[in-house]
């Protein structure tokens, strides 16, 4: 390949490199999404709901046990009251007062137990809804993961094609020109700039007639402003 084609080959090499970079970026984004746990916050929220339900059930057991203990004591006192064994009005009056006192102590526990049972019902309903939502999201995520897997395979195949194209171009480009390109690309991201309407597309600065003539002839010339290698179609 003659020297007049080197700038164009470098432009093609840059196209292949930029396309390969885009594929790598896409693969990186896909990989990051595949490796992320998108449903972690949802699972954590559900676990917190389950923990809250456990706590409510624990409170209900304790409250019910306290109410049951008071009920047992009331039953003992009522058995004495109605057994007929106690005939003293004073003792009977004392038993009645004790029973009423115990019932007064029991009432808040019973009220609290009702509140807890309502809260438990609400919590169970909320958990059921959250579980159903999580299941739907899991199914949607599986579909998304399959789509991402296909995109990953496509991007990988495209990357291989660009890398093969790059390798083929390098066999036609002199080592010195390839090294210039490598250094410029390392410094600027884009090492080669097309000349359009008499201006460098890399920086927009007009290219002199002499530089245009040399670039048109296929020489490796660089923009006097941005230092990129110039080429014309």
From TrEMBL:
<dbReference type="Pfam" id="PF24481">
    <property type="entry name" value="CT398_CC"/>
</dbReference>
<keyword id="KW-0175">Coiled coil</keyword>
<feature type="domain" description="CT398-like coiled coil hairpin">
    <location>
        <begin position="39"/>
        <end position="189"/>
    </location>
</feature>
<feature type="coiled-coil region">
    <location>
        <begin position="113"/>
        <end position="147"/>
    </location>
</feature>
<protein>
    <submittedName>
        <fullName>Zn-ribbon protein</fullName>
    </submittedName>
</protein>
<dbReference type="InterPro" id="IPR056003">
    <property type="entry name" value="CT398_CC_hairpin"/>
</dbReference>
<feature type="coiled-coil region">
    <location>
        <begin position="43"/>
        <end position="80"/>
    </location>
</feature>
């Amino acid at each position: 390949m003659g020297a007049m084609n080197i700038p164009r080959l470098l432009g093609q090499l840059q196209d292949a490199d930029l396309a390969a970079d885009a594929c790598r970026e896409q693969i990186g984004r896909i990989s990051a999404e595949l490796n992320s746990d998108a449903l972690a916050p949802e699972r954590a929220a559900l676990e917190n709901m389950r923990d809250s339900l456990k706590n409510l059930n624990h409170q209900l057991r304790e409250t019910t046990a306290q109410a049951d203990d008071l009920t047992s004591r009331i039953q003992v006192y009522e058995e004495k009251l109605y057994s007929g064994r106690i005939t003293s009005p004073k003792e009977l009056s004392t038993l009645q007062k004790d029973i009423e006192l115990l019932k007064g102590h029991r009432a808040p526990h019973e009220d609290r137990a009702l509140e807890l049972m309502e809260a438990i019902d609400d919590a169970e309903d909320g958990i059921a809804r959250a579980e159903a939502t999580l299941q739907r999201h899991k199914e949607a995520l599986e579909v998304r993961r399959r789509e991402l897997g296909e995109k990953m395979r496509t991007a990988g195949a495209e990357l291989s094609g660009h890398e093969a194209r790059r390798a083929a171009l390098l066999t036609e480009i002199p080592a010195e020109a390839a090294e210039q390109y490598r250094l410029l690309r390392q410094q600027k991201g884009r090492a080669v700039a097309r000349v359009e309407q008499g201006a460098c597309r890399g920086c927009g600065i007009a290219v002199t007639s002499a530089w245009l003539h040399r670039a048109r002839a296929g020489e490796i010339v660089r923009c006097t402003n941005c230092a990129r290698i110039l080429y014309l179609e």
